[in-house]
Amino acid sequence: MFEWTLRAALLGSGAAIGLAAGPALAGQIDNLKAQFDALQARLDQRESQGPVAESVPAAAPANAVVGGDYPGSFKLPGTSTSCSATPSRFRH
Q1: Which of 1, 22, 68, 87 could form a disulfide with 82 if both were Cys (CB 3.0 to 4.6 A apart)?
Q2: Exposure pattern of 9-43 as b/e (b: 16+ CB <10 Å)?
Q3: Rounded distance between C-alpha atoms, residue 52 and residue 41, angstroms
Q4: Which pTM value belongs to this model?
């Protein structure tokens, strides 16, 4: 008898919580729908503007330190000489 009463009480409290959460969830769903509609409008606006030109990465200045010819190395600015700060036995 106690188990049946406990089950009924748990089922009833679960139903009450579910019904109480209904209006709160409805407000969240309406908020998400509004956000989705706003994002869809922005996307439609961007698509109507036409293709966007791809950006070209800026070239490194002549005096910049850039990656060298072998792993872990760098080129000396203004030259084509590759240098490394590690001994050659550690390079792969």
Answers
A1: 68
A2: eeeeeeeeeeeeeeeeeeeeeeeeeeeeeeeeeee
A3: 18
A4: 0.35
Going by the DSSP 8-state scheme, the letter that residue 82 receives in this structure is E
Length of the chain: 92
13-40 pLDDT, tens digit per residue, is 666 666 665 666 677 888 999 999 999 9
pLDDT tens for each residue of 47-79? 888 777 777 777 767 667 777 777 878 887 778
Cβ atoms of 77 and 62 within 8 Å: the answer is: yes
Tokens matching residue 60? 């490194």
* Residue whose C-alpha is closest to residue 86's, from 71, 76, 65, 66: 71
